[in-house]
Design goal:
This protein is of the alpha/beta class. The chain is built from 17 helices and 10 strands. A hairpin with a 2-residue loop joins strand 3 and strand 4. The relative contact order is 0.13.
Length: 412
């Protein structure tokens, strides 16, 4: 099975610089500095069709090209490991086990965009990940890959770690910039986009750490090789987090085009209780998929028509005997608690969704379907970030996937 990021799937130890170099680590950075131009590196990323792995799936090359086109003397790269979604552990596993892959990816992004300063953005309570990253930074500097000497006479790049607040919204890219600058970690209105005016008003490329960890492989093996993995519009591999619903919970790497049935049965060892799967939630900010979709290839182009997305891969599974409406309410309450408060439509939507759902569970939910759909439609696109859409997605899909449960509980 194809794996790019988690070569040592059975190991929980942090990969050392020596071990990373043994499997080709920093060869891509060396090749870039010695033989390629920044435009060459951007072109390889463009050919690879790599998309952001933080959930939004924005084309990585477009983001890099925006920052590279700016003429500012000072530019930044931010590796976003601010993983706040309760059902996702993939960034934590990646930073703790393979920090050098993230650092080399940041350095390649810096080379391609003209940046010289980097920030690795990790949550303040991620002690094992921060320790692993700090040790990797020391190793990379001592070996000359990072720091004042850099990896070549014409390129020097260094990274510092920023400890982010534990709030969910602080993981949004502009909120990360606000936190790094000393603010509370709240999203900013766009445009301007970070690639134009980001950290300290300078061009800044913000990528999820999983996105960045793919970059060394792409530059080393070629964008075409990466594009050969996956489906027509979804390339490479994706990290998935499975929880205690399965016999073998953990983080797994699968190529796009795999199915949730494969993920659950082959990676997770099947459902722990042996119960039948009713539905899958690909990530907390996505739409539910019914059991009939377990064999649909996992890809952006296949899940979008079903009202969902691979998201960040933090999978939740609903089986016979579970209360799906209680799960939907818990997700809605999470978004209500975690919205930052600066956009009135978001405050209204998240609070009203919880109010309507509580009414359904209390048997007083008359008109719930119309209320929820009108609320989501009215608020769509009216916030500084996409939390409005994230909060609505699982609820709207649940109205269809769990329609009988809603009707029975609402007293309708």
């Amino acid at each position: 099975m194809t794996r790019i990021l988690l070569d040592d799937l059975g190991s929980a130890r942090t990969e050392t610089l020596t071990a990373y170099q043994r499997r080709g680590g920093y060869q891509a950075l060396q090749r870039a500095v010695q033989s390629l131009t920044p435009a060459d590196v951007v072109r390889e990323i463009e050919v690879s069709l790599l998309r952001g792995r933080g959930g939004a799936a924005f084309p990585t090359a477009k983001k890099w090209s925006l920052a590279a086109a700016q003429t500012a003397a000072r530019k930044f790269v931010v590796g976003n490991g601010g993983e706040h979604e309760p059902s996702s552990d993939k960034d934590k596993v990646l930073v703790e086990r393979h920090p050098h892959a993230v650092l080399e990816g940041m350095a390649l992004c810096a080379f391609a965009t003209g940046a010289r300063e980097g920030v690795l953005y990790l949550i303040e309570d991620m002690a094992p990940q921060i320790a692993a990253a700090e040790h990797a930074l020391d190793e990379a500097r001592a070996a000359g890959w990072l720091g004042a000497r850099g990896s070549g006479a014409s390129f020097a790049f260094d990274v510092r770690i920023h400890r982010a607040p534990t709030t969910y919204v602080a993981g949004e890219e502009t909120a990360a910039l606000d936190s790094i600058e000393g603010g509370p970690g709240k999203p900013r209105k766009k445009p301007p986009y970070p690639g134009e005016a980001g950290l300290h008003g300078m061009p800044t490329t913000v990528n999820n750490v999983e996105t960045l960890a793919h970059v060394p492989w792409i530059v080393r093996e070629g964008g075409a090789a990466f594009a050969a993995i996956g489906t027509a519009q979804s390339k490479g591999t994706l990290l998935f987090t499975l929880g205690r619903e399965v016999r073998n919970p953990g983080v797994y790497e699968l190529p796009f085009g795999s199915t949730y049935r494969q993920l659950i049965e082959q990676c997770g060892g099947g459902i722990r209780s042996g119960a039948r799967v009713r539905a899958v939630l690909p990530a907390m900010s996505c739409g539910f998929l019914a059991a009939e979709h377990l064999d649909v290839p996992i890809a952006y182009e296949t899940l979008k028509p079903l009202g969902s997305s691979p998201g960040c891969g933090g999978v939740r599974i609903v089986v016979d005997g579970d209360d799906p409406l209680a799960l939907v309410l818990s997700i809605a309450e999470f978004f209500m608690a975690e919205q930052c408060g600066q956009c009135p439509p978001c405050r209204m939507e998240t609070n009203q969704i919880v109010h309507v759902l509580k009414g359904v569970l209390a048997g007083k939910g008359a008109g719930y379907d119309d209320k929820l759909r009108k609320l989501a439609a009215f608020c769509r696109g009216k916030g500084y970030c996409s939390l409005i859409e994230m909060a609505a997605a699982p609820v709207l899909s649940a109205l269809t996937v769990f329609a009988d449960d809603f009707k029975r509980r609402a007293g309708a």
